[in-house]
Write a structure and sequence with these properties.
The structure is a single chain. By secondary structure, this protein is mainly alpha-helical. The protein has five helices and two strands, in the order H-H-H-E-H-E-H. Helix 1 runs antiparallel to helix 2 and helix 1 packs parallel to helix 3. The longest helix is centred in the first third of the chain and has 21 residues. The chain starts with 16 loop residues before the first helix and ends in a 5-residue tail after the last helix.
Length: about 140
């Protein structure tokens, strides 16, 4: 049985696993589009706050994976991994952890390797420039 339609009973919302996977994929596709369309140091349509929203969307996916016990035998596992690989292709390692340092809600995941996407930063384009600039400023790091 597919877990895609499984309704999660979360405080203040009742998303399905499919809703969460869909949200993560939309964020990644919008990010890719923005990086393609805005290649220079200008602000594109998908900015720092959208990027942070994408990272939260992936956290929610991870929570759903744990809650409904998605395994490598489930189709949902393969959907998530495919989107993850596309995200990896659009990003690079963030060895300084500027994104984690810029968002207090990410601190609790800083040492957990399961949340690898929080240690990634857009590899280039206007989004890469903006995320690096804003994250460093919010983390009070010098350029």
């Amino acid at each position: 049985m597919s877990k895609f339609d499984k309704v999660l009973e979360w405080p203040n919302r009742r998303p399905t696993v499919g809703d969460l996977i869909g949200s993560w994929s939309v964020y990644v596709f919008e990010m890719a589009s923005d990086m393609r369309d805005f290649t220079s140091e200008v602000i594109g349509d998908f900015g720092y706050h959208d990027y942070v929203g994408a990272l939260f969307a992936r956290i929610f996916v991870e929570q759903a994976v744990a809650e409904v016990s998605i395994t490598p035998d489930d189709v949902e596992h393969h959907l998530i991994r495919t989107i993850d690989e596309y995200f990896r292709s659009l990003t690079r390692d963030d060895p300084g952890g500027v994104v984690i340092k810029s968002e207090p809600d990410f601190e609790r995941y800083a040492q957990d390797p399961k949340y690898w996407w929080l240690r990634r930063i857009p590899r280039d384009g206007a989004l890469g420039y903006e995320v690096s600039r804003v994250a460093r400023a919010q983390a009070d790091l010098k350029f």
